[in-house]
Design a protein that fits this description.
With 134 residues, the chain is mainly alpha-helical. It is 46% helix and 9% strand. The chain has a domain of 56 residues. The chain starts with 37 loop residues before the first helix and ends with a helix.
Length: 134
């Protein structure tokens, strides 16, 4: 048997001929570059323009805009599922906006007064001292 440890094949030591050469991948065909995924396909499809009739005239809008118009129209008509969907979309789209203009003056004063208050912190030693005094 060969005494040189670098040439031996065995557990977790494949033969040199079976190892990947530097610069060569173990999956040469692999995933081709530029393969489209669902998100890209959906984005492209929703951005395409379509013609719709609105107010007696034809207009060209994106499919995304047409879907939003239809959802809002059915929500206005009273469809409960459309209303729920629209409200969840609005919460996701506008939920992060914290405009100071939308806040009432009284609410703003309450928040500012609360922020100015010193924080009351009770440590464990204070709680123990208070209970032993009783």
């Amino acid at each position: 048997m060969n005494n040189n440890n670098s040439d031996t094949a065995g557990y977790k030591r494949p033969p040199k001929g079976g190892q990947f050469q530097p610069g060569n991948s173990g999956n040469p065909s692999g995933r081709p570059k530029g393969v489209r995924n669902f998100k890209m396909d959906l984005r492209e499809e929703l951005s395409e323009s379509i013609s719709i009739r609105e107010g007696g005239r034809d207009i060209s809008i994106s499919k995304q805009r047409a879907l939003i118009k239809r959802l809002v129209a059915s929500a206005i008509e009273g469809d409960a599922r459309s209303i729920a969907t629209l409200m969840s979309f609005c919460a996701r789209a506008f939920g992060d906006d914290n405009d100071e203009q939308e806040q009432a003056a009284e609410d703003r004063e309450i928040v500012q007064a609360f922020a100015r208050r010193p924080a009351k912190r009770h440590s464990n030693t204070e709680a123990t001292n208070n209970s032993s005094k009783e």
